[in-house]
Amino acid sequence: MIDFGKINSAAIGVLPSLLARWLPDGRRVGHEWVCRNPRRSDRKPGSFRVNMNTGKWADFATDDTGGDPVSLAAYLAGTGQAEAARALAELALKDGGQEDAAKLVWLFRTVLCRRPDAKEAAQLNAALAKQRELYRDAPQAAEQAVNTGESPPKSSVLPIETASWTMIANLVLNLDETLNRN
Question: What is the mean pLDDT of residues 57-68?
Fold first, then answer.
């Protein structure tokens, strides 16, 4: 599973730069980022705020709130946290090519802007084989994993494949290099 605590810890360290990218019309006021909410018609900054020390955020006009940078990213994207990994897996299955090796390269280039080295590719191929085995033995778990979240799966690929690749996407998203990029 995705270690959201680790991702949040890493995000807090670079939160000002993330907020400048995610909410570019905002500005720092003390320890808060004050901006308009891009998810609604918000005429002026003020009601949408992010605490840059804790990552807690709120839209005081709508009562939408969250406790960390990952929940803010999910809110801004209009998706749940687990759904983001599934969406990445679905894109890899659709756009990554026919072979597993091509899909791994696609994941790495999408997330890290580079190819996996031989050791990474071998480890991820082994993890993929293990996930496929686990989900073949428990297809109901694959079905449950694929149907987690509010949005329905977009892939017409078998749930065992989508669930297995979701776990691989989780691994890539949790690499230290992913979490600590500037």
Answer: 90
